[in-house]
Amino acid sequence: MKKIGENPNHKTSLLIEADNVSVSFAGRPALNHVHCRVERGQIVTLIGPNGSGKTTLVRVLLGLQVPDSGRVFRRKGLKIGYMPQQLRLDPTLPMTVARFLALGVPRARLGDGVRRAALVEVGASHVFDSALHDISGGEMQRVMLARALLREPDVLVLDEPVQGVDINGQADLYRLIGSIRDRRGCSVVMVSHDLHMVMAETDQVICLNQHVCCAGHPEQVSRHPDFVALFGQRVAATLAVYHHQHDHRHDLQGNVLGDASAPSCATCTRGESHDHG
Fold first, then answer.
1. Which InterPro entries does the UniProt entry name for this protein (predicted)?
2. Which of 2, 29, 195, 277 has the lowest CB atom count within 10 Å?
3. 158 and 69 share a domain?
4. Are strands 14-25 and 69-74 parallel, antiparallel or unpaired?
5. What is the CATH number of the domain that holds 232?
6. Which long-range contacts (CB under 8 A, 24 or more apart) does 136-143 make?
7. Are both 180 and 241 inside the same structural domain?
8. Hey, which residues does 205 pair with through a beta bridge?
9. 147/232 same-domain check
10. How far apart are the C-alpha atoms of 219 and 22, rounded to whole Å?
11. pTM for the full model?
């Protein structure tokens, strides 16, 4: 039986948790005893092949899909900013970016200055007065991200945030998402197929194929036998060598070794230490 509400045993950092959740459609399982938790300030990325249940899990976390069994916890008063995978607009519908940003946004956030500031934050201030149909795919993704930010979310939920964006734009957008997390202190839940880049910009990875195949720190997941079986040895080998300079070390679970005050980092290579340049 599905339950939603306060978890008396949760830590104060816990924002959302799906515990032992199962969902099926017309008798076909979409999720099978899946567990997912999102803590404050964490970037969690859901990966897996098409039909693996990623979007269904996102809908469960958002409260848009009622699970058949399991428990869902969302912190009381939690604010979520959602960026959907695709936005289909009637080409005959005239709508500017400014007007689009006002849709579904709290009245207090409707002022031009607030909306312009959101576009500045995502690097798209120049499209404020543009028609939605006249902007590029990359600009549209940034506009949708700005709209999600206007809710002042505790958690950003981004379903394929770089869809329709070229390879250079994808890297820039992932870096932007990371900087938003750092600046605002919000959590981020991402669904992605862009394994190489997203693995270097996330704290926790959950690999789905109706069930949780493996989960944990990106480096740990990239070497897990279930991940290798799902994506192949070549992909796993490529993901195992991403680099990020930092001045501390991790164990295989991604915990910082040594100085407890050292900042966390999700993108080291095989636990090796590097000095900042």
1. AAA+_ATPase, ABC_transporter-like_ATP-bd, ABC_transporter-like_CS, Metal_Ion_Import_ABC, P-loop_NTPase
2. 277
3. yes
4. antiparallel
5. 3.40.50.300
6. 137/163, 137/164, 137/165, 138/164, 138/165, 138/166, 138/169, 138/173, 140/87, 140/164, 141/83, 141/165, 141/173, 142/173, 142/176, 143/97, 143/100, 143/101, 143/119
7. yes
8. 45, 216
9. no
10. 27
11. 0.77
**pLDDT tens profile 88-117:** 777 777 899 999 998 877 776 677 899 999
- My answer on whether 102 and 225 are in the same domain is no
Residues 165 and 136 in one domain: no
**Bridge-based pairing state of the strands 43-47 and 3-4:** unpaired
CB atoms within 10 A of CB 129: 9
CA 211 to CA 26: how far, in whole Å? 18
Q: Answer whether 137's CB lies under 8 Å from 167's CB.
A: no
126 to 3, 119, 159: CA distances (angstroms): 45, 8, 25
**Confidence grade of residue 184 (pLDDT, cut at 50, 70, 90):** very high
Q: Which run of H or E residues covers position 212?
A: strand 211-216
Instruction: Give per-residue pLDDT as tens, 66-96.
Output: 999 999 999 999 999 999 887 777 777 789 9
Within 13 A of 215's CA, how many CA atoms are on the CB side?
Answer: 14
CA distance 3 to 128: 42
Q: How many CA atoms lie within 13 A of 15 on its CB side?
A: 23
Which of 32, 18, 51, 29 is closest to 230 using CA atoms?
A: 51
- Do 162 and 239 share a domain, yes or no? yes
Instruction: Mark whether 241 and 190 lie in a shared domain.
Output: yes
As beta bridge partners, residue 14 has: 39
